[in-house]
Design brief:
The structure holds 2 protein chains of 2 kinds. The longest helix of chain A has 36 residues. By secondary structure, chain A is of the alpha+beta class. In chain A, 35% of the residues lie in helices and 14% in strands. Among the domains of chain B are: 61 residues; 105 residues, 2-Layer Sandwich (Gyrase A, domain 2). Classes of the chains: A alpha+beta, B alpha+beta. Chains A and B meet through strand 1, helix 8, helix 24, strand 30 and helix 25 of A and helix 2, helix 3, helix 4, strand 1 and helix 5 of B.
Chain lengths: 928, 425
C-alpha cells in the first residue's frame, strides 16, 4: 500500500481535441462496421478490434499486450468521408460565423467580444435593441455580410441557402488566432475549426463492453450500435462520393451521417427524433451517460460504492452506551480491519492467522475474531481458510497485512438514509452481539431519525489509522450531542425514558430495599443511605434521591417542568411538583420530564453537556437510560382505549355542548341567508360566515375536550404520557375522548364533491356544521360513515403533502449544499469560497460556533456570572433588557393550528411506517 | 447624569481590557450585555475582573475552528428541518383576515430569490404623532389601499343608448373618504377620449351618476393587416368602455390590494396585501424608519443590498420560527451573505450561485452536465480543483476541515533534529 506523501492533481485543463491529436492517440483505424466473426472472435479493424483493448479473459491487447485487468483500453479512429458539425458546438459556431467576415475570416468590428451572457442584458429588462437591418460589410475586404441562421440542431443557412459543414469549417479556418482570442476562445486549447469533425474518436471497448446473454447471444452496447451506424453511412457516403453519384444522393447521405453523429453525442437533441433500439427504447449515448441523477457525474463520481460495509435491520438495546453499536457475529466475520504486521506484533498476528476465518467461540461462548485475508509484503493476497490457516501463518512476515475480523472496541461509521445532516453518520464502537440486527441505544434515534419498525442502517469499517483517528475525535456519537443547528442537545431521552423519569420523580415515590436493589442493579453506584424508615422500621429510598445519583456532584439548576402550568405553586414540596430545583447534584423538588432530559429541550442535559463536557454527558445518558428502563420495568405503565373513557354525565355534557354549537352555526347560516350577517372588514360575506363558523366549531371542539379533560387527571396513564411530554398531546386525547373536530382541506371547511354539497346525504347549499365536515364523534366511539369519509378527505391531504414535501425539500437542500459546500472559515477568521472571495468578515458576526453557543448566544452570561459569584443570578430580572438575542418571536396560536398539529402528529406516525420502502433507500441500496 | 455616563464608559473600557488580556474581542452585543449586567448587579472591581475573565475564556472556547466547513453545516441546518415543515400555503399570520405564504414554500421562495413573493405583504407603521389615533391611521390606510371604480360605484351598461352608467354609492364614497369630484377627475383622466365621452347622468348630489357615451365619429383604434381602419361593432366598444371604467384607479398606492389596521400594543399598525415599498414610503404620515415589506427585492431596490441581506435573514428566521423550528441565525446569515455577496441578490441554484461556480466539474455535477463540459472546452477553462465536489470527483481529499491542513514530518532532517534537541533541553 502506498504510504507517505501522495500525489495530488493540481488542476484540470479542458480543451478541444484536434484532428491530429485524435489520430495520434488512436491505436487503430476502424473501417469495418462489424464486431465479431462467426467464431466470436473480434474482426480486425472492426469496432471490437483487439487493438482497442480487451474485455475477455485469455486474450491479450494488441496495443499494449496487457490482459483484461492490465490494459487500460485504447482509442480508435473513424475517418469521416465528409466533415460533420459537432452538435454541442452548433451555437458557438453560429456565433463565430456571425461575428466574422464570410470571406476573409476577420472579426467584424461590431461583433460582441465574447459570449452574450444573459446577465449582461440591461437591468430594466427591456429587450436589447437591435440595430437597423442594414447591410454590413467587412472593413478589411469590403465583402458584404449575409445573415446567418442556425436551423437547429446542426444546419446553417445564409440567406436561406444551406452552408455545408465543409464550408463552415473552411470559414472557421480563416479566422486568425488573434481574432479567435478576441472572440472569447483560447486558440492554445482549440482552434474553432475543430468544432467541425473530420475524424471521430472511437472509445475503447472497456467503455462499451458487449455482454453475453444466458442464451449465448451477444448483445452490444448502445454506443457500439451507434458507431456501427456511423461506420455504415460513412462507408456509403465515401463510395457514392468517389463514384461521382448525384449531388442529391451525396447530400442525403451526408445529412444522415450528421444525424448519426449528432445522436451519438446526444440522443436527446431537440428537433430530431432520438435514435432507437429495435425494441423502441431510445439509445443511451454519450450525453445520456453523463447526465442526471443516474449519470456518471452524480451516480459514479460524486458518490461511490464501497467495500467493508454492511446493512441490516436495526433494533434497540438500552443497555448499550450511546457510543456503541451492537453488531451480529455474521456481520463481524465479514468485515475486516487491516492489521499491519511489525516485528512487535508478529507473533500475535501469526496466532491470529492460525485461527482461520471462523474460530470456535471462547469457553464462555463468546465470539472470537478470525482472519479473512493475508496480504504479503509483495502485495499478494491470500484468502485464509480453515484448511490453509496454518500454512498462511508461516507466511506472516513484518511488512505484510493481516485482514482481521471485527472485535469489540473497533470504531465504525454508522449511517441511516436520508443523510440530511452530519449527525446522520456517526462513529460508534463495536460490540459483537448474538442475533442478526444492528443495535444501539435509543437516545441515538433522534439524530438518525430512526425507529425500529423495520428500518435498516448501514455500517462502514474504517481502513486507515488517519480515518480511525478522525472518527474518534470528530465523529463519535458523544461529540454530536449538541446540534450545530440550534446549539442544544439533539441526542437525549425520549418516550419511555421520559415516562420513567416522571414516574420516578413525580411527587417523590418511595422504594423498598429490594426495589432499590433492582433499580440500581444496572448502575455502577453504591446504594445511598436510605432517606428514612417507614412505620414498620424498614428503610426506604425516594425516587428523587435515586435520580440524583446520575447527576454531577456540583450541578445547580432551576427550571420549570413540562407539566408546569400557570399558577402552580413553585415552592418545594408543593402538590404540583412542577418547578425543578437541583442544588449541588441533589434533586430537591420538581418532576423530571421532557423539559429536563429530552432531546432538543432537556435543561439538565444541556447544562451537563455544556459545563461538564461530552464524556460526562454521555455517561449521564448511558446511566439515565439504564435507570429509566429499569424504573419503568418496576413501576410499569399501560394505556388502553379505556383510558379515554369519560363518565356518562360528561358524555351528555359534551353532546350538549356540540349540539348548542350546531344550533349556533345554524343561526349564523340563517343570518347569512337573510343578509343580517355583519361583514368583517376586508372579507366577503361568505368568508365572514366561514370564519365565524370555524371559530364556533373550534370552540365547541375545545369545549368538548375541556369537559373530557376534567375527568382525565395525572393518574391516567395516557395523560401522563401527554403531560410529561413522552408521547402524544392533550389534543390527541381530546380527539379520542371528546370530539374529533372540523376536517379541512387547504385550510377550509370541506366543500368539494357533488354540486353544491359534499355528499348526496345533504341538501344542496347546506352550510351547516355536519354537511361541511365537522366530526362531532370521537375516535373512541367511532365515526359515522359521513364523518369517516370527511376524515379521510383531511387525511388524504396530509398524505399528499408529505409526499410532495419530501421531494421539494430534498431539492432545496441539494441546491443549498451545492451553493454553500465550498465555504469555510480560514485562518484569519473570515469565511471564504474557493475563489478566495470573502463572504463574511467574521463568521456569524461574532465568530462563534453555533454548536458551542448557548441557544444561539455567544456565552451564557447569567450562568457564568452565577458560577463566578457563587450566587444565583435570576434570569427573570434580566428579562426584557439584556442580550438582544434573536429568540423566535412568540407566535399567535390560531384555533386551526391545533387541528393541524394533531394531524401532524398522526402524520409523523404514518410517515415513519412508510420509511422502509422510500425510493431513497430502495434506489440507493436495494436495486442491486 | 454625566457621572453615570462616565462610569459606563470606564466599565466598557475595563471590560474591553480584561478581554484583551485573554486575547478576545467581544462583539458589541455581548459587551453591552455584560456592561448592563455588571452594573445592575453592582459587582466589585475584583468580581468584575473575575466575571469578565470567565466570560472571555468561555467565549474563546466557543469560537469556530479554522477550516470548519461552515457552508455545509449551514446548508444542512436549513435543509434538514425542511422535511418537517408544512406545505400549506395559506396560513394566518398576525392578522386573521390575511393569507400569507409560510412554511416550506416560503423558504424555497426566499432561497430562489424570486422577484415577487407569492403573497406580498407590508407592515406599515405610522408617525409617532398619529400612531395612537385610530381615525388618523385609518385615513392613511385608505390612502394606501387601491380604490377602483367598482369599489365605490355600480357600473351598468345600457345597450340601447350605447352608454355605460356609473352610479356612485354615497355610503361607499364616504367609507373610502372620496368625493364625487374626486371620482369625476379620475374618470375624466381615465377614459379614452378618442372613443368615449364623459357626461353627467341622472340623480343628484353625491350620487349623481356619470355616463360614458360612444363618440359619434371615433378614431379607429385597431387596424387591419392592410393598415385600413376597421370599424368595430358598437357593443364591443361598449364592453371596452365598461372594462376600462372598472380598471380606473381613484386613489391608493398601486399594487396594494388591501390595507387593514390592527392594534398592536399601544399603537395602530397597517397591514397590507400587496407591496409597493417605494410608493408607500412617500405617503405622508408613514413612519419610513419602521415600515417594511416581505418582498426582499423591493427592499433591495429601495435601500440596497445590505438591507436586502438583513431582510433575507429576518424573513427566513421568521419562516422557520413560525414553524417552531429553531435554526441558529448564523446559518441564515451565511446563506444571505452568499446570496448578496456580489452586490445583488442571486438565487441558490442553477441560475444563481451554483451556475457561477469557478469549477467546471462542480457545475457539471450539479445540473446541465453536458453544456458545462462543452462550454469548458470552448473557452479552454482550467479547473483548479479547490472546491469540494471537484476533489471528490477526481478522488482526492477535500480542502475543508482536516483535509485543509498537511503535516510534514522529516525524520533525520537537520531542522527536525535541532528542534527535538531544543525541546529535550
Amino acid at each position: 500500500m502506498a504510504q507517505g506523501l501522495s500525489k495530488r492533481i493540481k488542476s484540470l485543463q479542458f480543451a478541444f481535441l484536434s484532428p491530429d491529436e485524435i489520430r495520434r492517440m488512436s491505436a487503430i483505424k476502424i473501417i469495418t462496421a462489424d464486431t465479431y466473426d462467426d467464431d466470436g472472435f473480434p474482426i480486425e479493424m472492426g469496432l471490437m478490434d483487439l487493438h482497442l483493448g480487451v474485455i475477455e479473459p485469455n486474450l491479450r491487447c494488441r496495443t499494449c499486450g496487457g490482459r483484461v485487468n492490465e490494459c487500460p483500453g485504447h482509442f480508435g479512429i473513424i475517418e469521416l468521408a465528409m466533415p460533420v458539425i459537432h452538435v454541442g458546438y452548433a451555437k458557438e459556431i453560429k456565433r463565430l460565423l456571425q461575428s466574422t467576415c464570410r470571406a476573409c475570416g476577420r472579426r467584424l468590428p461590431d461583433a460582441p467580444s465574447s459570449r452574450g451572457d444573459s446577465s449582461a442584458e440591461p437591468e430594466d429588462g427591456a429587450p436589447r435593441t437591435r440595430g437597423p437591418k442594414e447591410e454590413r460589410s467587412c472593413p478589411f475586404c469590403h465583402e458584404i455580410q449575409q445573415r446567418i441562421l442556425l436551423d437547429k440542431p446542426t444546419t446553417f443557412r445564409e440567406n436561406g441557402h444551406k452552408i455545408t459543414p465543409k464550408e463552415v469549417r473552411a470559414r472557421l479556418e480563416r479566422i486568425p488566432d488573434a481574432d479567435v482570442r478576441d472572440l472569447g476562445l483560447n486558440p492554445k486549447f482549440g482552434r474553432p475549426e475543430w468544432m467541425v469533425l473530420t475524424v471521430l474518436p472511437v472509445p475503447p471497448v472497456q467503455v462499451r463492453p458487449s455482454i453475453t446473454l444466458e442464451s449465448g447471444e451477444r448483445s452490444e452496447d448502445d454506443l457500439t450500435h451507434k458507431l456501427v451506424d456511423v461506420l455504415r453511412i460513412n462507408q456509403r457516403l465515401r463510395e457514392n462520393r468517389d463514384m461521382g453519384a448525384p449531388q442529391l444522393v451525396v447530400e442525403d447521405l451526408w445529412e444522415l451521417l450528421q444525424y448519426h453523429i449528432t445522436t451519438y453525442f446526444d440522443n436527446q437533441t431537440s428537433g430530431i427524433p432520438p435514435a432507437r433500439h429495435r425494441s423502441g427504447r431510445p439509445l443511451k449515448t454519450l450525453a445520456q451517460r453523463l447526465k442526471g441523477k443516474d449519470g456518471r457525474f452524480r451516480s459514479n463520481l460524486s458518490g461511490k460504492r464501497v467495500n467493508f460495509s454492511a446493512r441490516t435491520v436495526i433494533s434497540p438495546d438500552p443497555l448499550l452506551s450511546i457510543n456503541e453499536v451492537g453488531i451480529p457475529m455474521e456481520v463481524a466475520r465479514g468485515l475486516t480491519v487491516p492489521l499491519e504486521i511489525t516485528a512487535h506484533n508478529l507473533e500475535a498476528a501469526k496466532e491470529l492467522v492460525r485461527r482461520g476465518p471462523s474460530p470456535p467461540p471462547t469457553e464462555e461462548g463468546r465470539y472470537r475474531c478470525g482472519v479473512n485475508y493475508l496480504v504479503r509484503e509483495d502485495g499478494q493476497r491470500i484468502k485464509v481458510m480453515e484448511k490453509n490457516a496454518d500454512a498462511c501463518a508461516e507466511l506472516v512476515t513484518p511488512g505484510g497485512i493481516v485482514e482481521r475480523q471485527l472485535i469489540d472496541g473497533d470504531i465504525v461509521l454508522f449511517n441511516r438514509q436520508p443523510s440530511l445532516h452530519r449527525m446522520s453518520m456517526m462513529a460508534h464502537f463495536v460490540r459483537i452481539l448474538p442475533n442478526k440486527t444492528f443495535r444501539f441505544n435509543l437516545c441515538d434515534c433522534p439524530p438518525y431519525n430512526a425507529d425500529f419498525d423495520g428500518d435498516e442502517m448501514n455500517l462502514h469499517v474504517l481502513q486507515s489509522q488517519e480515518a480511525r483517528a478522525e472518527a474518534k475525535v470528530l465523529m463519535k456519537v458523544e461529540e454530536h450531542i449538541l446540534s450545530p443547528r440550534y446549539g442544544g442537545p439533539i441526542i437525549g431521552m425520549l418516550h419511555d425514558h421520559i415516562t420513567a423519569a416522571f414516574l420516578l420523580t413525580y411527587q417523590n415515590p418511595t422504594f423498598t430495599m429490594s426495589e432499590v436493589a433492582y433499580l440500581l442493579s444496572k448502575l455502577n453506584y453504591p446504594t445511598p443511605p436510605p432517606a428514612g424508615t417507614d412505620k414498620n422500621g424498614r428503610p426506604y429510598w425516594t425516587g428523587k434521591q435515586l435520580f440524583s445519583l446520575t447527576l454531577p456532584r456540583d450541578l445547580t439548576l432551576e427550571f420549570r417542568s413540562n407539566i408546569w402550568s400557570k399558577g402552580d405553586d413553585a415552592s418545594p414540596g408543593s402538590k404540583a411538583d412542577s418547578t425543578v430545583i437541583i442544588e449541588n447534584g441533589i434533586l430537591k423538588a420538581g418532576t423530571i420530564d421532557k423539559k429536563a432530559i429530552a432531546f432538543e429541550k432537556g435543561a439538565i442535559l444541556d447544562d451537563i453537556a455544556r459545563n461538564y463536557g461530552m464524556a460526562r454527558a454521555r455517561q449521564f445518558l448511558d446511566e439515565m437510560s439504564r435507570l429509566a428502563i429499569t424504573a419503568i420495568g418496576l413501576k410499569g405503565l399501560s394505556t388502553g382505549i379505556d383510558d379515554e373513557d369519560v363518565p356518562e354525565g360528561a358524555q351528555k355534557e359534551i353532546a350538549k355542548a356540540l349540539e348548542s354549537a350546531r344550533v349556533k352555526v345554524n343561526e349564523l347560516v340563517a343570518q347569512y341567508k337573510n343578509g343580517e350577517l355583519e361583514q368583517m372588514p376586508g372579507r366577503s360575506l361568505e368568508e365572514t360566515l366561514e370564519v365565524m363558523v370555524r371559530r364556533e366549531l373550534g370552540m365547541a371542539r375545545d369545549q368538548a375536550g375541556e369537559i373530557a379533560g376534567r375527568y382525565l387527571g395525572l393518574e391516567n396513564p395516557a395523560v401522563i404520557l401527554a403531560k410529561s411530554g413522552a408521547r402524544g398531546s392533550m389534543l390527541n386525547l381530546t380527539q379520542m375522548a371528546g370530539a374529533v373536530g372540523q376536517q379541512s382541506v387547504r385550510g377550509e371547511r370541506l366543500l368539494r364533491g357533488y354540486y353544491d354539497r359534499t355528499l348526496p346525504h345533504f341538501a344542496r347549499g347546506d352550510l351547516g356544521a355536519d354537511s361541511r365536515g365537522f366530526v362531532s364523534s370521537n375516535y373512541k366511539h367511532g365515526l359515522s360513515p359521513t364523518e369517516y369519509f370527511f376524515h379521510s378527505m383531511g387525511g388524504r391531504e396530509s398524505l399528499v403533502d408529505t409526499a410532495v414535501r419530501t421531494s421539494r425539500s430534498g431539492y432545496m437542500q441539494r441546491r443549498l449544499i451545492n451553493a454553500l459546500e465550498d465555504l469555510k472559515v480560514v485562518d484569519d477568521g473570515t469565511v471564504r469560497n474557493t475563489a478566495g472571495t470573502i463572504i463574511e468578515y467574521l463568521y456569524g458576526e461574532d465568530g462563534i460556533d453555533p454548536t458551542r453557543s448557548y441557544q444561539g448566544h455567544a456565552v451564557a452570561v447569567d450562568e457564568i456570572l452565577a458560577r463566578v459569584l457563587g450566587r444565583l443570578v435570576r434570569p427573570g430580572a434580566a428579562e426584557g433588557g439584556g442580550a438582544g438575542g434573536a429568540g423566535p418571536p412568540p407566535v399567535a396560536e390560531e384555533e386551526m393550528d391545533l387541528q393541524a398539529e394533531a394531524l401532524a402528529e398522526e402524520e409523523t406516525e404514518e410517515e415513519e411506517t412508510e420509511d422502509v420502502g422510500t425510493p431513497e433507500e430502495g434506489g440507493e441500496f436495494g436495486g442491486e | 447624569m454625566p457621572e453615570e455616563k462616565g462610569a459606563r464608559e470606564t466599565l466598557a473600557t475595563r471590560i474591553e481590557e480584561i478581554a484583551k488580556d485573554e486575547g478576545i474581542r467581544f462583539p458589541p452585543s455581548l459587551a453591552s450585555e455584560l456592561r448592563e449586567k455588571i452594573s445592575r448587579l453592582r459587582l466589585t472591581p475584583a468580581e468584575t475582573t473575575r466575571a469578565v475573565r470567565a466570560v472571555a475564556q468561555r467565549f474563546a472556547k466557543a469560537e469556530v475552528d479554522a477550516h470548519e466547513s461552515v457552508g455545509i453545516i449551514a446548508a444542512q441546518s436549513i435543509g434538514e428541518p425542511g422535511t418537517q415543515m408544512t406545505l400549506r400555503t395559506f396560513h394566518y399570520a398576525g392578522v386573521a383576515e390575511m393569507n400569507v405564504t409560510l412554511g416550506l414554500p416560503r423558504l424555497i421562495e426566499l432561497v430562489d430569490a424570486r422577484r415577487v413573493p407569492s403573497t406580498p405583504m407590508m407592515t406599515v407603521y405610522v408617525d409617532p404623532k398619529l400612531r395612537k389615533d385610530r381615525d388618523a391611521v385609518q385615513k392613511i390606510a385608505l390612502q394606501i389601499e387601491v380604490t377602483t371604480v367598482p369599489d365605490i360605484a355600480t357600473i351598468g351598461t345600457v345597450v340601447e343608448e350605447l352608454k355605460v352608467v356609473i352610479t356612485p354609492q354615497a355610503a361607499l364614497l364616504k367609507a373610502r373618504g372620496i368625493t364625487r369630484d374626486h371620482l369625476e377627475r379620475a374618470l375624466t383622466e381615465g377614459v379614452d377620449t378618442r372613443l368615449f365621452e364623459l357626461r353627467p347622468g341622472s340623480g343628484s348630489g353625491e350620487s349623481r351618476s356619470f355616463a360614458i357615451h360612444l363618440k359619434e365619429r371615433a378614431e379607429p383604434t385597431t387596424r387591419s393587416k392592410k393598415d385600413e381602419p376597421v370599424e368595430e361593432m358598437p357593443f364591443r366598444k361598449l364592453l371596452l368602455a365598461s372594462e376600462e371604467a372598472k380598471g380606473i384607479q381613484i386613489q391608493g398606492v398601486p399594487g396594494i390590494k388591501r390595507a387593514l389596521i390592527r392594534r398592536e400594543k399601544d399603537e395602530y399598525v397597517i397591514y397590507t396585501e400587496g407591496s409597493n415599498l417605494e410608493k408607500v414610503l412617500e405617503v405622508p404620515g408613514v413612519d419610513g424608519a419602521r415600515t417594511t415589506t416581505n418582498s426582499v427585492f423591493e427592499i433591495y431596490r429601495v435601500y440596497g443590498v445590505e438591507a436586502a441581506r438583513v431582510a433575507l435573514v429576518r424573513e427566513a428566521n421568521r419562516t422557520l420560527a413560525e414553524q417552531g423550528l429553531g435554526v441558529d441565525i448564523r446559518h441564515l446569515m451565511l446563506v444571505s451573505d452568499v446570496m448578496t455577496n456580489e452586490g445583488d441578490i442571486r438565487a441558490i441554484g442553477r441560475h444563481g450561485i451554483s451556475g457561477k461556480k469557478t469549477s467546471v466539474l462542480a457545475r457539471a455535477a450539479f445540473e446541465i452536465t453536458a453544456a458545462h463540459l462543452l462550454h469548458a472546452a470552448i473557452t479552454g477553462e482550467t479547473d483548479e480543483l479547490k472546491g469540494v465536489a471537484e476533489n471528490i470527483i477526481v478522488g482526492q481529499p477535500i480542502t475543508l476541515g482536516t483535509g485543509a491542513v498537511n503535516l510534514v514530518y522529516r525524520p533525520g532532517h537537520p531542522e527536525t533534529v535541532e528542534r527535538s534537541r531544543e525541546e529535550a533541553a
